[in-house]
Amino acid sequence: MKARLPPWACALALLAIAMSPAVRAEDAGIITLSGKPVIARPTRPPVRFPHEAHWGFEGLDCLSCHHEFKDGVNVLDMSVLAAGGPAIQCASCHRSAGKLQSSFHRLCIGCHETAAKKAKPTGPRSCGDCHPWK
Ligand code: HEC
Ligand code: HEC
Ligand code: HEC
Ligand code: HEC
Fold it and tell me: Does residue 103 line the site of ligand 2, with CB under 6 A?
């Protein structure tokens, strides 16, 4: 028996790698937000959120979005962020479907609105730009 794979198998493997979400260059640093499983039956398409791009936007840092409030002060321990894990999920604190949806909208659209009012570069503010039907 030959140890080598036939050429078509290699081609297929390469194709699979090229198409896997983790490896596609355009997907690096992008999080797809669907609200699931808290929002059990979404009515809109999921949102492609360019997470890492936001790290470089003027005036933004991790604590612009990630938080843990104590007496109105954001006391989030950065090591929690560095570790990753479920505590970071918005849904771990904003627990109902309705609250989760409004938390996302207030954070995302709120900041984009504020920047627009100051005539600064900003992100999408209309439904279809975040939830594209295609
Ligand atoms: C513009 C808002 C925003 C900024 C700025 C931001 N994040 Fe996030 N981050 C999010 C959102 C939204 C999620 C998704 C949370 C969810 O799925 O519930 C997330 C998820 C994460 C996760 C878990 C998913 C993953 O990719 O591993 C980590 C870790 C994380 N952020 C770290 C950071 C760090 C570190 C910084 C600063 C360098 C940062 N974030 C800046 C909004 C932001
Ligand atoms: C550790 C728990 C925790 C996590 C995780 C968390 N939040 Fe919050 N968030 C709170 C608390 C507590 C408040 C302040 C009390 C309130 O208004 O609910 C708050 C307030 C907010 C507010 C301002 C109040 C409002 O509803 O307008 C927004 C917007 C928000 N969170 C969005 C998010 C988003 C989006 C994520 C995920 C990136 C997230 N939160 C992750 C606990 C958390
Ligand atoms: C604290 C402010 C802030 C928050 C929170 C925020 N954004 Fe943005 N976003 C920006 C700014 C500023 C830009 C435009 C930056 C630029 O073009 O220089 C932007 C741009 C974008 C873009 C366009 C990126 C591009 O490459 O053209 C998308 C998409 C986007 N945001 C989605 C989101 C989503 C989804 C959320 C919530 C999960 C979110 N943003 C939360 C500030 C914010
Ligand atoms: C800046 C981006 C942004 C804009 C603009 C935006 N949304 Fe969202 N929306 C989100 C994110 C992020 C979530 C949470 C992830 C999810 O559930 O898709 C969400 C969740 C939702 C949900 C709950 C989940 C579902 O699919 O049923 C609904 C409904 C919704 N949005 C409708 C709207 C409508 C209607 C508009 C316009 C008035 C709108 N959104 C504008 C980012 C946005």
Answer: yes
